[in-house]
Amino acid sequence: MTAVPIAASRRIAHRPRGEGKDDVGFSQNRRRPTRRAGDRRNEAVLHTDGRLLLVHLTSAEISDSAGAQAILDGIRKRWPWLKHLFADGAYDRLKLMDKAAYLDFVIEIIRRSDDQKGFEVLPRRWVVERTFGWMTRWRRLVRDYEQRIDVSHAMILVAMGGNLLRRTAHP
């Protein structure tokens, strides 16, 4: 049984404010801008060595746990032998845990300690951050240039396929 981390990252669309009707504007306190409707989030399922197993792109309005619920079925279909999943603290929601228990998954939540000051490497979280770093080495994935989600999904698969080839050719 291989343990698999589940990860999420928010990719901000590269559009100046005021262009298009996607912009939402600023929050009431005017200190930070609110999310624009064009923002995307990718939920990724990774192997413990950093290989991308499954990626699911959604809009940024979808929560982490709702996005993870959508990919749990895909994990069970493709890899029925997987039992143990690692997840960030954002995935600790009752609906997600219920669905994971129904699909016979064990989700281990990796949390930061409350008394943590500054940066500290969390177990299994570094695998996710390293993989997202590998993805952003590809120029088209630094910003979200794509208008369509399927093209963005394809670019993630191309980037991770190139990474897999590079790691295989030069171990």
Provide a descriptive summary of the structure in words:
The chain is α/β, with parallel strands linked by helices. It has 4 helices and 5 strands, in the order βββαβαβαα. It has a 5-stranded mixed sheet, with helices on both faces. The longest helix has 21 residues, at 149-169. It starts with a strand and ends with a helix. Residues 9-35 have low confidence and may be disordered.
Question: Would you spell out the secondary-structure blueprint of this structure?
Answer:
Blueprint: E1 4-11, E2 40-46, E3 52-59, H1 64-78, E4 84-88, H2 94-102, E5 106-110, H3 125-136, H4 149-169
Parallel strand pairs: 1-4, 4-5
Antiparallel strand pairs: 1-2, 2-3
Query: What ranges have pLDDT less than 50 throughout 5 or more consecutive residues?
Result: 9-35
> What's the gyration radius in Å?
17 Å
Task: Give a quick account of the main beta sheet: strands, pairing sense, barrel closure.
Answer: 5 strands, mixed
Strand neighbour order, sheet with most strands: 3-2-1-4-5
What is the 3D form? Answer: globular
Helical fraction: 25-40%
Counting DSSP H or I runs of 4 or more residues, the number of helices is: 4
**SSE order, one letter for each helix or strand:** EEEHEHEHH
Beta strand count: 5
Structural class of the secondary elements?
Answer: alpha/beta
- Rounded average pLDDT: 75
Strand content is: 15-25%
